[in-house]
Structure formats: structure tokens, C-alpha cells
Write a structure and sequence with these properties.
It is a single chain. The protein has helices spanning 26-32, 48-57, 77-80, 111-117, 146-154, 178-188, 191-194, 201-208, 230-237, 254-257, 263-277, 282-289, 390-393, 399-418, 430-439, 447-461, 474-480; strands spanning 40-44, 64-68, 98-100, 120-123, 129-130, 143-145, 170-174, 214-218, 242-245, 293-298, 301-308, 315-326, 333-344, 347-350, 354-355, 374-375, 378-379, 385-387. It is of the alpha/beta class. The strands form 5 sheets. The chain has a 6-stranded parallel sheet. α9 packs parallel to α11. It is globular and about 70 Å long. Flavin-adenine dinucleotide binds at residues 11, 13, 44-50, 68-71, 76-77, 81-82, 86, 89, 104-106, 124-126, 128, 150, 179, 182, 359, 389-390, 397-399, 402.
Length: 483
């Protein structure tokens, strides 16, 4: 389940600032200052993994790091994933190191070409695919991945055509992780609260017209297995204009099991228990009574089919198998009881996990786990090739986790460099790649180009009280840059 991925979710890693100024670590300076060749290294992907890996590599006093990014804009999921009503997490500024946006590795330039031009290549291209539900009806209009929905409201160019139909009363989110909660919160937040965020204008216009009143988050297992974290849950419980729907039956006997579970899980479950079982105080009771929208957690239900509307042009509901739990601890599994239940809805969002895509036939890929096989960031059996972030360890964890594993990859690469395990002699680096790109008609976007786009977005947001109005069309971005 996707949701397991988010165990370490939290905002402790924020604000996220990926400064590329070289940290002055004296031991590094001393160790490497006698090397004659400039180590030319490139990183593929400019999300947190790409920037944190680059940051570590730049501790080598001579290293030059180029970051190739397929979007014209940097920062990966920090720009396109993190919810727009969490603006504190959006801060990012950058110093030294070359950014080459609008360059898709695997299409505009290949990994072997990069390996030829650089001493080492680090793959940090994230996990862009979502896991499919693999149930009948998944292809119906009105069904989409939570990832695409998030990309749509956050301005990811490839998701701008999504235009979700929010004319229905009820939405069902399959999954009980933080992304599922993010999506539920955006669907139910009063639009005037979103007006001060950098959510796209197009998304805001659609959300203003939304008729969605109820959002169900469905999980195969029970309250002890939810994958969202307490901060996100608290925010949901307090969301203005909404009330929670929790069935006390799902929580029976849970109190007695609390002493067996680790502290963060215990605190999270206590909050769920209080919300489900305790009578709210007068103020909270009044708040809930006046709420016009609701969200609920539906436990012990596994999706079997998306039910079509009578004309077959949309979703009318989800058929769920009722489950019970078998096993203990992490090994707890949901098994069907044989009972079925239909949950009516007009919108279905699947939030059951992500996986990476293979980037090049020459790069090993574990298609079952959706990651590049590696040992501490060294790609298995390919000297000089490394990986970091979600493509290295799978789509688990928050930015802080990504930072730690990216630093580790950077450390391994520098160790190999010091041990003479990388190719010796000079490498052309970006000069060779720029020549290739130019022969293929690709015009990269530099970091100063991005700063111009950034200034344009901020200027467009001014006067409306919004931090920025995101540009969502790559062609418009390139046009603004005179490309
Ligand atoms: P990404 O951030 O996805 O970066 C990968 C980059 O590679 C992207 O810029 C992509 O465009 C680029 N790329 C892909 N393919 C290519 C290619 N072929 N050539 C060149 N470039 C390419 N964590 C938190 O701590 N707090 C949060 O609030 C939070 N919210 C989240 C919300 C959502 C919806 C999601 C999905 C995740 C969220 N996370 C959050 C987790 C966090 O975003 C991840 O831990 C982190 O982004 C992973 O970093 P990454 O660099 O591996 O991947």
C-alpha cells in the first residue's frame, strides 16, 4: 500500500532550501586539493535528491556538477507535489552549480552519452508512475490517480488537461496515506482559504464550482495500519466547514492494544480514538453540526471494481470487498471475508503508491520494486553510475529521508573518486552535452532563466494576494525566455 510509504512524513524537513554553496569542510579540501583533473559529475533530476546529492558532491573543492532536469523549472515534487496550502515548504534558493532544465534524459540525451561525457552520473529522477488499481472500471472517466490530481492543482504541465469533474456529491480516495489526506483536504477546503496559496488559477476555478460534499478515504486494513501522520490528521480534523465521519465499531478493543505499539503510532491512534469515540465539547459539537462538508475513513475495505454510471460515461461507485485482519505487527494482512459493499460516488482517486520508470536499456532496473538496484547508491554492476532519492530506495519517506540517502550516495561517489575507481583523465562534461543538445534542437533552461520565470510568476501573483501564479505551459515558459 502506498500509505506505508509515508511513515516518516512530517514537516520537520521544511523549509526546504537546497543552497548549492559549497560547504567548507577542511578535511575534504585537504584530501582532494592535489588532484589535477576536474571531476565532471552530472545528476539527472532536480528534486530534493538531485539537489542534496549535488550539495554533497560540491564538498569536493574541484568538482563540477551539472543537473539535468526534464521540466523547464527545478525542484521536482517540492514544486509539483507538496500541497499548495503548505507554503512554508516551498522556499528554495540556489547558488552554485549548473542547472540544465528542459532536457529529458532518455529522450534528448541518453545515459551512455552522459557517461561518456562525465566521470560519474547520478540518477535522481524520482518515481513518476503511480501504481495501478488493476480492477475493472479503472479506465472510466471520473477515475484518476491522486498523483495526477496533485499534479493538476500544483501546475505540473503534463497534468493540466486532467480537468476533474467535481460536479458529484461524493468522492472516494483509495488509500489512507498523506497524499490521500492532502487530496481530501484540497477537495474540502473552502476555496477562499486556497486563494492565498500558489494553487493554479485553473484548479482554483474548478474547485470554486465543486459540488463535492463528502470524501471517503478507503483502506484495506484498520485504524492501526493507517499510513498518514498525526500532523496531517489533526489538520484534517480541524478543517473549517467539515466534520469527520468515523464508525466507533472500527475502534472497539483498540484502546487495549495501544501499549503494544510504538509511540508515534500510539499518539496517532489516540487521536483517531478520541475523534471517533468521545463526545465533542459544546464548541466542537456546534462546529461539526454547522459543517456543510464531511470526510470519513472507511476501514477493512478492498476495492474490487469501479462501477459505471448508467450511460457508461463515468463512475457511479466503487465495489468493495469487506476484509478482516490476519497476522500481527508489520505482517498484518487484509483478507476478504466474502462480503461485498457498494460505495456510491462520482469521483475515484487512487492513492496506492508510486514507482519509478526505467530510463535507459543500459541501466539495470528492478521492475517489481520499481527501483534501480544499488548498494548504498552505487548502481549494481555499473561502475561510475549512482542513484539517489526515490529511484534509489522507492517512494518512501519525506524530504529529510531523501536528504540523508542523497548525502550517502554523494559520499560513496566521493569515496570512489578518492580511491581511483572512476575514469581518469579529463572529461568534457557539459560542453559535449551542449553540443549534442544543440544538434538535436534542444534549448536548455539555465538557473538564471528559471529566476526570470520565477520573477514572472511572482509578478503575476501580485495584486491578488497570492505568492505566485504558476506558469503551467512549457511553451509559454520558453517563449517568455525568448527560446
Ligand atoms: P522528485 O522530487 O520527484 O524529483 C525527481 C526530478 O527528476 C523531477 O524534477 C523530475 O521532473 C525529474 N526527472 C524525471 N525524469 C527525468 C528525466 N528522464 N530526465 C531529467 N529529469 C527527470 N515530503 C515532505 O517532507 N513534506 C511534504 O509535505 C511532502 N508532500 C508530498 C506530496 C506528494 C503528492 C508527494 C508525491 C510527495 C510528497 N513528499 C513530501 C515527499 C517528497 O516530495 C519526496 O521525498 C521527494 O520529493 C523525493 O525526491 P526525489 O528527488 O527522489 O524525487
Amino acid at each position: 500500500m502506498a500509505s506505508r510509504c509515508w511513515r516518516w512524513w512530517g514537516r520537520s524537513a521544511w523549509p526546504w532550501t537546497p543552497p548549492l554553496s559549497v560547504g567548507s569542510i577542511p578535511s575534504f579540501r585537504h584530501q582532494f586539493s592535489t588532484q589535477e583533473t576536474t571531476p565532471q559529475i552530472c545528476v539527472v533530476g532536480s528534486g530534493p535528491a538531485g539537489f542534496y546529492t549535488a550539495q554533497h558532491l560540491l564538498k569536493h573543492p574541484q568538482a563540477h556538477v551539472d543537473i539535468y532536469e526534464k521540466q523547464p523549472v527545478p525542484f521536482g515534487l517540492v514544486r509539483f507535489g507538496v500541497a499548495p496550502d503548505h507554503p512554508e515548504v516551498k522556499t528554495a534558493h540556489c547558488g552554485r552549480c549548473a542547472f540544465w532544465g528542459n532536457v529529458e534524459v532518455g529522450r534528448d540525451v541518453t545515459v551512455p552519452e552522459l557517461r561518456e561525457a562525465y566521470h560519474a552520473v547520478v540518477l535522481s529522477y524520482g518515481a513518476e508512475d503511480h501504481r495501478a488499481l488493476e480492477i475493472p472500471g479503472e479506465e472510466l472517466p471520473g477515475v484518476c490517480s491522486a498523483r495526477a490530481f496533485v499534479g493538476w492543482y500544483n501546475g505540473l504541465p503534463e497534468n493540466q488537461e486532467l480537468k476533474p469533474d467535481l460536479s458529484c456529491d461524493t468522492a472516494v480516495i483509495l488509500g489512507q496515506g498523506n497524499v490521500a489526506l492532502d487530496v481530501a483536504r484540497i477537495l474540502l477546503t473552502p476555496p477562499e482559504h486556497l486563494e492565498k496559496t500558489d494553487i493554479t488559477k485553473a484548479a482554483l476555478d474548478v474547485l470554486r464550482q465543486s459540488r463535492v460534499k463528502t470524501v471517503w478515504l478507503v483502506g484495506r486494513r484498520g485504524p492501526l495500519q493507517v499510513a498518514f501522520t498525526i500532523k496531517e490528521l489533526r489538520e484534517m480534523i480541524q478543517l473549517p466547514g467539515t466534520r469527520p465521519i468515523l464508525d466507533p465499531v472500527d475502534f472497539l478493543g483498540l484502546q487495549d492494544r495501544l501499549k503494544e505499539v510504538p509511540r508515534p503510532r500510539k499518539r496517532l491512534t489516540e487521536l483517531l480514538l478520541r475523534t471517533a469515540m468521545e463526545k465533542p465539547g459544546p464548541e466542537e459539537a456546534a462546529r461539526r453540526a454547522s459543517a456543510s462538508r464531511a470526510w470519513g475513513l472507511r476501514f477493512f475495505r478492498s476495492p474490487q471494481q469501479v462501477l459505471p454510471s448508467p450511460d457508461g460515461q463515468g463512475a457511479a461507485g466503487v465495489r468493495l470487498a469487506v476484509t478482516r485482519l490476519e497476522g500481527v505487527g508489520e505482517a498484518t494482512r487484509a483478507v476478504p471475508t466474502g462480503a461485498m459493499e457498494d460505495l456510491p460516488c462520482g469521483l475515484v482517486l487512487s492513492s496506492i503508491g508510486y514507482k519509478s520508470r526505467p530510463i535507459d536499456p543500459s541501466v539495470p532496473f528492478d521492475s517489481k520494486l520499481g527501483v534501480i538496484p544499488n548498494v548504498e547508491g552505487r548502481v549494481t554492476d555499473v561502475p561510475g553510475l549512482y542513484c539517489s532519492g526515490w529511484v534509489k530506495r522507492g517512494p518512501t519517506g519525506v524530504i529529510a529521508t531523501t536528504m540523508t540517502d542523497s548525502f550517502l550516495t554523494g559520499q560513496m561517489l566521493l569515496q570512489d573518486l578518492k580511491a581511483g575507481l572512476l575514469p581518469s583523465g579529463p572529461r568534457p562534461g557539459s560542453a559535449a552535452i551542449q553540443a549534442l543538445l544543440s544538434s538535436r534542437g534542444v534549448q536548455p533552461v539555465s538557473f538564471s532563466d528559471w529566476e526570470k520565470l520565477d520573477a514572472e510568476e511572482v509578478a503575476r501573483g501580485q495584486g491578488t494576494g497570492r505568492p505566485r501564479e504558476k506558469l503551467v505551459d512549457p511553451q509559454e515558459m520558453l517563449h517568455l525566455l525568448g527560446h
